[in-house]
Write a structure and sequence with these properties.
Helices cover 40% and strands 15% of the residues. By secondary structure, the chain is of the alpha+beta class. It has one domain: NADH Oxidase (3-Layer(aba) Sandwich). Strands 1-2-4-3 form a four-stranded antiparallel β-sheet. The two termini are 29 Å apart.
């Protein structure tokens, strides 16, 4: 079977807690981001960008998330605060895919958002092809403007996903998938 098809048919998300070092090298990261960028992009707008969280940057991002969480919950549970601090430090590498969709006279915003989603999927496929495991997450902080501003997002930018990347040696069971008969309609046939 074609290796790409085999990868697409067998790819599984891995829990963020199971993603271990070593993360991608600088050359592998460049390959991942280059591959992720090769998506359909109506109008050649590049309505996306990346924020790379690695090393100490993951810890600083967690502090920002915890600070914003604490401001909203003045007496936070200490265990929950520990969870918030580790949000982007579980995997050796986290890449935020930022949607930069905006008004355009020819390209609807929803098409631009789909492009950012395709970037997330390309990043996941590329990482898995290099032997890494991944999970695409969006938690509360992906939608919190205070967190996003502190991460450097402009007002019109949104997070399409946080893609966590690392090594995983644990077997991953597949989840139930819909039967094609339940999700495919043949028109006119």
């Amino acid at each position: 079977m074609n290796a790409t098809i085999d990868l697409l048919k067998t790819r599984r998300s891995a829990p963020a807690l199971s993603l271990l070092e070593p993360g991608p090298t600088a050359a592998e990261l460049e390959t991942l981001l280059t591959s992720a960028s090769r998506v359909p992009d109506h109008g050649k707008l590049a309505p996306f960008r990346f924020i790379v969280f690695q090393g100490e940057g993951r810890i600083r991002a967690g502090e920002i998330i915890a600070e914003v969480y604490t401001a909203a919950h003045p007496e936070p549970d200490p265990d929950q605060l520990r969870v918030e601090r580790k949000r982007l430090a579980l995997a050796p590498l986290v890449v935020a895919v930022v949607s930069r969709a905006g008004p355009n006279p020819k390209i609807p915003e929803w098409e631009q958002v789909l492009t950012a989603g395709a970037v997330c999927m390309n990043l996941i496929v590329a990482a898995n092809a290099l032997g890494f495991a991944t999970v695409w997450l969006t938690e509360w902080y992906a939608y919190d403007r205070k967190v996003l501003e502190r991460f450097g997002l402009a007002e019109h930018e949104k997070i399409a996903g946080f893609v966590h990347i690392g090594r995983n040696q644990m077997p991953r069971d597949d989840r139930p998938r819909p039967a094609l008969a339940d999700i495919v309609t043949t028109f006119g046939g």
